[in-house]
Here is the input.
Amino acid sequence: MADTQNAAADEPTAEEIAAEISEQKAVRLAKRDRLNDGADLGGGAYPVSLPITSTIPEVRDRFVGLGVDEQSGERVGLAGRVVYSRNTGKLCFATLQSGDGSRIQAMVSLAEVGEESLQAWKELVDLGDHVFVEGEVITSRRGELSIMVSEWRIAAKAVLPLPNLHNELSEETRVRSRYLDLIAREQARRNVIDRAKVNASLRTTFASRGFIEVETPMLQVMHGGASARPFVTHSNAFDTELYLRIAPELYLKRAVVGGIERVYEINRNFRNEGADSTHSPEFAMLEAYQAYSDYHGIADLTQQLVQDAAVAVSGSHVVTWADGTEYDLGGEWARISMYDSLSDAVGVQITPETPMARLKELADAAGIEIDHPLPGKYVEELWEHHVKAHLVAPTFVMDFPLDTSPLVRWHRSIPGVVEKWDLYIRGFELATGYSELVDPVVQRERFVEQAKLAAGGDPEAMRLDEEFLRALEFGMPPSGGMGMGIDRLLMAITGLGIRETILFPLVK
Here is the structure.
């Protein structure tokens, strides 16, 4: 115990760490001034350009077969961030890192650069600096690919020290200072690359099916397309209240009315709600609509989109999460009924005709607190409580209560439900899909019911959108539609939390 207490006492306090950083910053700023004042030091602390001929990844690929303690006879000029440095009498070593994490060793010797340049290196170059080096590609006696430097310059002076790259960054630092996370951690860099691969795969799959990508407004005079609380702002130019969009749905449907029969958008949505491991107030969303399809066809499309994205990232439908777990996204995914699966879970038959009083009894028995006027809300909450956690494999949950889905077509054969599914992967909702409601008269009735809920104080209820209804009155073909969170898709493929899949998440 005494040793533990002594070790804790030896740990620097936050104030001591801050003081040390402040002192290091002052030293580095003095070096910056010296670089800017010295015309003979290669163009200052922040030169506008450098004679770069290669990148670190390119050099590593080109000279992969170079033997131990061998010279290539080829000269390159490249730049990287100093992440390791060791200075000796006549020879200095530095490890340079590129943006993708590739590294190469730079060797600065008295024989190659001269005494003045070697001394300047020792005095001016710090960990975290970007430096340019030019010289011959060689391997060291230990076989490490290196540049025998004949000329060097500071490419960008770092005036703050890097954190210790041998220690794992705290989650707080990773989220708040993602730039440090990208420097220090391979997984952070891989997340950015994986996200780009996923977006490229989505676009490729859509293109193969004849879909057209569009952009719709993020500032809207009327929020709609989902049940969610919006962010509100004010336009000085129009002197009106505007909303950050909660979904692009109503505009994409206008595009279908106009004849863009296969349309999609990948862009940002904003919902003024809670934040947790699967929710962010700002998130990337994919929505797509296909004329002359339905919720079965759009489920087929969604399965292909997810499976193609998995292959793009991992080369297989079987993905490996960050913790090493393997998860199979392949095959045909199960499709289960919400009402039937809930009935099986509670041991009694639940249907759209089940009285509200009975639903309340079941909620009370399960310890679920619900205060809502719609029976369908009780059904959904009961289902989440009893069934959701048991869904391990990818599963489409089909046929939702009519009263909670105001933009969805009623079921063609089952009264009281709508043709809607939610896709669950890893136990969380990844996507939702509909047979779209295209009857303008019924849609108006649904909007009126939503307006009553809004008037009663429901902040998530939709408003009556006359412009959207007018578009529907010109005729929208029967269609299937889907929405999927890009951040959650990355969660399903990588096994990471939402704050890891978003490059710069919103934090307090």
The chain is about 35% helix and 25% strand. The longest strand covers residues 71-87. The domain at 23-156 is CATH 2.40.50.140 (OB fold (Dihydrolipoamide Acetyltransferase, E2P)). The CA atoms of residues 338 and 397 lie 6 Å apart.
